[in-house]
Amino acid sequence: MIKLTKLSSQQRQILNGLITGASVLLCCFLMLTRLPGMELLGMAPNWFLIWIVAWSLKRKVFPSILAGLTLGMIQDGMTSTPHSGPSHVISLVLVAFVTAKLQKQRYIKEDFISVAIIVFAMVIVAQTAIAVQHFIYQFRDYENIFKDYQRISLISAILTSLWAPVLYYP
Fold it and tell me: Which pairs count as long-range contacts for 145-152, CB under 8 Å and 24+ apart, including other chains?
């Protein structure tokens, strides 16, 4: 077994890159999988949002935004068809930006409770961005958007914040 203390800085960067890539790949698989106990009223946790929050808490703004852009494009590629609806890119970039700014201002601690609260708030931010996109592009009328926004935001925020420590801890 390789001891991490004996690794050179280049080897640490390679190992960090592999771990980061593996965690993104794990999130991709989890997005496609619906395991028992992971759903509530047909909704599943937003694994990419959890990853972005966990990543952005320890990074500066630009790398966080870049990660949000990348994961947003991956999620759109996995879930969208042409003209199918709003993009996840805007919501994940916004979440990455706000989370990185929170870290910079040192208002938060890095424990499970604060991460779960931040994830809960960021799900609301992300769902608001998606609802605004629905409203701007006029996919549906305002009343239906608002009704669905409330239900989806609350369920997604509860589920995602409950599962956040599972991905944040490693």
Answer: 151/41, 152/43, 152/127
Is 133 within 8 Å of 122 (Cβ atoms)? Answer: no
Answer yes or no: are the C-beta atoms of 123 and 14 closer than 8 Å: no
In whole angstroms, what is the distance from residue 7 CA to residue 34 CA? 38
- The reported pTM is 0.83
161 and 117 Cβ atoms separated by less than 8 Å: yes
CATH of the domain at 62: 1.10.1760
From CA 111, how far away is CA 168, in angstroms rounded? 9
Query: Dihedral (C-alpha) 30, 61, 124, 51: value to the nearest 10 degrees?
Result: 10
Residue 69 pLDDT grade (very low, low, confident, very high; cuts 50, 70, 90): very high
Structure tokens at 118: 């931040």
State the burial class of residue 83 (Cβ atoms within 10 Å of its Cβ: 0-12, 13-18, 19+).
exposed
Instruction: Domain of residue 124: give its range.
Output: 4-168
Say if CB 60 and CB 96 are below 8 A apart: no
Task: Please state the domain count of the chain.
Answer: 1
